[in-house]
Amino acid sequence: MAKDSTKTTIEADGLRYRSKAPGSPFAATSSFGAATMSCFLCGKHRPRAMLKSKKLLGKSQPVCAPSCKELDEQLSKP
Questions:
Q1: What is the structure's pLDDT at 34?
Q2: Has this prediction a pTM greater than 0.90?
Q3: List of residues 6+ apart from 47 with CB closer than 8 A
Q4: Are 71 and 60 in contact (CB under 8 A)?
Q5: Distance (Å, rounded) from C-alpha 39 to C-alpha 13?
Q6: Which of 33, 54, 56, 58 is the most exposed, having the fewest neighbouring CB atoms within 10 Å of its CB?
Q7: In the prediction, which pLDDT does 41 show?
Q8: 45: which strand partners?
């Protein structure tokens, strides 16, 4: 079963997609601390409070605290 192909054209205002909802799935917040960042190891977006900096490849990178697996377990508990 083939997926319907959608033809896109560039409109006069420069937009290409008609069906795509505008904006980002990561809502802009008013405070810097409430923003999300992605974990360098697992790639999941987390609030900055759930991340810590860890030196990887010679540079400080944001990673899940205490670890990606433990954080997933904590968040999946009811």
A1: 61
A2: no
A3: 34, 35, 36
A4: no
A5: 35
A6: 58
A7: 92
A8: 38
How far apart are the C-alpha atoms of 54 and 9, rounded to whole Å? 44
Q: For residues 34 and 27, is the Cβ–Cβ distance under 8 A? A: no
Distance, CA of 46 to CA of 13 (rounded, Å): 34
Which pairing describes strands 59-64 and 51-56: parallel, antiparallel, or unpaired? Answer: antiparallel
H helices of 1-78, where? 68-76
Q: What is the pLDDT of residues 13-37, one digit of tens each?
A: 776 666 666 666 666 655 665 688 8
DSSP one-letter code for 33 = G
Question: Which two structure tokens, joined as six digits, stand for 12?
Answer: 């006069």
Whether 62 contacts 51, CB under 8 Å: yes
Q: State the amino acid at position 67 in one-letter form.
A: S
